[in-house]
Amino acid sequence: MSAPSSQGIHTLLEAEKEASGIVAQAREYRVKRLNNARTDAIAEIETIQKRKAHDLEEIQKNSVNQEELASNIQKDTDEKMAAIKEQFEKKKADAVAKLVEAVVTADVDE
């Protein structure tokens, strides 16, 4: 083998070694980026889960408040209806008597 041939092989080997180093660096960089992306995605998922859990708690709290409000409205309505019926029963006889009196003692002036 001649010296230029030997030097050419040596140059090729160095170029291959340099290329292998560049490929190794690129792989390391890719792995780091994938790990960073995975970590960021996990953090974002946790943030979204916390926000959704908080939203769900608020919805459930409002649901309980609405059920309580509906119950209070129904109770108030029932109480008012009972009072109206009681007043009706108390005044029914007087109203009937006044109607009968008005019909019986009609003015015949016309």
UniProtKB/TrEMBL annotation:
UniProt keyword list: Coiled coil, Hydrogen ion transport, Ion transport, Transport
A Pfam family per the record: V-ATPase_G
Coiled coil location: 31-76
Glycoprotein listed as a keyword: no
Domain of life: Eukaryota
GO cellular component, one term: vacuolar proton-transporting V-type ATPase, V1 domain
One of the record's GO molecular function terms: ATP hydrolysis activity
Known function: Subunit of the V1 complex of vacuolar(H+)-ATPase (V-ATPase), a multisubunit enzyme composed of a peripheral complex (V1) that hydrolyzes ATP and a membrane integral complex (V0) that translocates protons. V-ATPase is responsible for acidifying and maintaining the pH of intracellular compartments and in some cell types, is targeted to the plasma membrane, where it is responsible for acidifying the extracellular environment.
Assembly, per entry: V-ATPase is a heteromultimeric enzyme made up of two complexes: the ATP-hydrolytic V1 complex and the proton translocation V0 complex.
Family from the record: Belongs to the V-ATPase G subunit family.
Record-given protein name: V-type proton ATPase subunit G
Organism: Coemansia asiatica
